[in-house]
Prior knowledge:
By secondary structure, this protein is of the alpha/beta class. It is built from 22 helices and ten strands. Helix content is 55%, strand content 11%.
Amino acid sequence: MPRVFLVEDESTIRSTLRDTVPWGQLGYEFVGEATDGEMALPLIGTTHPDVLITDIKMPFMDGLSLSKLVLKEFPNTKIIIISGHDDFEYARQAIEIGVEQYLLKPITKANLMKVLREVKEKIELEQEQRNYQAQFQRDSQEYEQFARRSFMESVVAGKLSVQQIYEDAGRLGLELRAQSYCIALFSAMGETYSDTDARVREDLLGHFMKHPEYLLLRWNLTTYMLLIMGEKNRMDSYIQSCVAAITNRYSVYDGQKPWYVAVGMIGSRLSQLPECYEDVSRLWAYRYIQQDTHVLTSETVKAPGSGSSTDLKSFDVNTFNPEMLMEIMRSAAPEEIPNIVSEFLLDISEEVRSQAFCHYVMLSTRFTAIQYVSSLGVNQEKLLEGVTCQDLTEQPVEMQDLRRYMSEFIMQAVKLRLQRSANQYRDILGRAVSYIDEHYTDDSLSLNMVAKEVNISANYLSAVFSQEMKSTFVEYVTSKRMTKAKELLRTTDKHSGEIALEVGYKDPHYFSFLFKKTQGVTTREYRSGGKH
C-alpha cells in the first residue's frame, strides 16, 4: 500500500491529522512525521514515502523548498501542500515544481480523505502503467536482438569509431557510457526441449535483464554474450556476480550436461572492445581443450608451457583424443574454428613438431571428420569436395600447413552439420508456426509451450524463429493478436475487455496498453476510424 509522511510545524494540527485520519481504511501506511523540512528530509530518504503532506510555511526549511528536493530525488512522490495563505504566488510555485494538491487551512477531515483517495487512484494507475511498461519490455526483450547483435558484431570487429558506437547505441536505446568494459560468453543449452533447460534459461536471462551493468545478447544458437560495464572499482564485483549467477543456475545439471562461461580482460575504453572480444574468444576455445574447466579465465586456462593438460610439450600421440575434434564438429560455430585450432596448436614445441606427428594429427582430423559427417548421413565426397588441401599429407608440412589442414576439414564438417540442421529446423519451424497460428488466442501460449510441442529447446527455437521469420516469437504472436483485435474492433460491438480475452490477454488493461504501444492509437480511436 502507498506510504505517507507528514510534515507540519504546528503540533496540534500534526497530531490531529496523524491520529484522526483513518490511514489504513484509506489504503495507506503512515510511516513518519516531522516538524519542519530540515528534520523531514533525512527521514524521507529512509522511509521513501509515496505521498508527502507538508505545510508550506515552516521554520528552517519551508514546504516548497522541501518539495523541490524531494521531487528531485524521488520524482514519483505525490506532494500535498497545506497552507494558511490564500496567495496565488504560493500556488503558482507549487504547480510549477509539480505539487499534486494545494489545500488551504483549515483542512477538513472529509476534504483531506477525498484528496487522499484521488491521489491513491493516481498512484495505482501510474504503478499499473509502470508494470505494463516493464512487462512489455520483458516480453519484447528480443525485438531488437537482430539490430543489437549486428551492432555488437561491428563493434568487436573494430568497424566503428567511438563516435559511431555512441550514435548507433543511442538509436538502439543502449547506454554504453562506463569507465570499464568486459565481455563474457556462456552456454549450456541442448537442442531438444527439457523443462530444466527452459527454467534455467528464463531464470538466467531474467536475472541479467534486471541489472543495468549487463547487456545480454544471443551470440549464436548456443551462446550468449554479456557486455559487463561499470565503474573501474566495481568491475571485479560485477564479474564475480556474473560468474556466480551462471554457476549457481547451471549447477542443476550436476555433470549431466557440459556448461561453460568465459570472461575476458577488462578494458578501460570502448575502443578496446575488439581486444576484449579477441581475448574472451581465445578463452572460449578452451571449452574443447580443458573440458573439465567450466569457468574459463586467464587464471583458470593454463598458460602454454605450464605443465597443464593443454601443454603439448609432453604430447603423446597415444593420448591424442579424436573425441575432442568430434565435439568441436558437433557444436562449434564456423567463426570459432580458426581460434580453436590456433589455441589447440599453440604450444606444440619444436621437439614434437615432427613430420610424423603432424601427419598423424592431419590424418586423425580427416578420419574424424569423415566419421562425423557419416553419422549425419552425409557421404564423404561432400566433405572432401570442400577441402582444398588434401595433398598436404603427402609432402613435408609446416605449422601453418597443419593449421590450415585442420581448419578446412573441421570447417567443412561444421558447414555440413549446419546445412543438415537448417533443413531440420525448417521442418520444425513450420510445425511451430502452425501451432502458434492455431493457439495464438490461448492466454497461456509461451515460447516454452511451443518448444515443448516441437521438441526443440526454447533457446534454439527462439534463435531459429528470429533468423527464419525475421521476427521474434513475441513479436509474431503480438502481431497475430493485434490483427485479430483490429478485425473485432471494426466488425463487432464487443468492448475492449471482451476482445482482450478473445485474442489471448487475461488483463484487459494490459491489452489496451499494448494496443496503443504497438498500433499508435487507442482501441477507441481505432474503432472510430483512427489508423495505425
